[in-house]
Amino acid sequence: MESFLETFRNLDTSQKILYVFGGAAVTAVSLVAIRKLTLKEEKRKDYPRDTVILHQIGRGPYAPSMTPFAVKLETYLRMARIPYQNVHGMRPSPKGKVPWIEYNGQPMGDSTLCIQFLNQKLGVDLNKHLSPADKGVAQAMQVMTEEHLYWLLALIRWIYSRDASFILETFKFTKFILWMIRRNVKKQTWNQGLGRHTEEEIVEMMNKDIQSLSDFIGRKRFLMGDEPGEADCSVFGMLSQTYWQFNGSGYENLIKDNYPNLAAYCERMKDAFWPDWDQCITHGGTREATK
After folding, report:
1. Assign residue 220 a region: left if phi > 0, alpha if psi is -120 to 50, beta otherwise?
2. Whole-structure pTM over 0.85, yes or no?
């Protein structure tokens, strides 16, 4: 299996744009480009039954993926101890989103719907230790993380980065390609709403969201207490981008310097569910293909 960087360097400009954005940016790419990507994928293999086939982009340089939603979904599979196999590539789900899954030939797109599907199909309940009220709070924290903080981090990573050299060197981008990516992010975030704010307002919102997570987790081991739950997959997926690979943004040490409890939380989740972390990143020259 090719590593993330090896795969990425072989893509043309339109493919690279789709690759980087993962699930959120597919809608910004033309149907023609998506069709080209699909046609270049290798033919579907006969996957083993009763094994989740996780389609996701290649590994990241400092965390297992450059998209938080792939980290979220794979952490869930590990937390629930569901047998799975990674397929790194560019083929989107029928909904046009990445990451996505197949289970016994049935495809499902969108990370949240994937988890919901597997919960129902396999009788998984990672929230069984929570009260109805706690489940509501966990859901609210997840939505804040995925539907608000995510876009703020995307703006800071792609639009307001202080040093673009990390992006240029890691992905072997030209300045023109980086300009195209930033143009797409601006368009998406403008339509979403958050892109209409100033950089100062975006940074203030980001700090409030991260502070809220820090205040809520406090001294707890996980989001809702001593046991991890489903929402931890989302929170960890998002924080993995900020804590490990926010390079060039100007906020690389934000969590480490200002939120030691979130740093400890990230390390705790990593130790609990990613003992093979170093083998699942490309920075050290290692890579992982299947689980």
Report:
1. beta
2. no
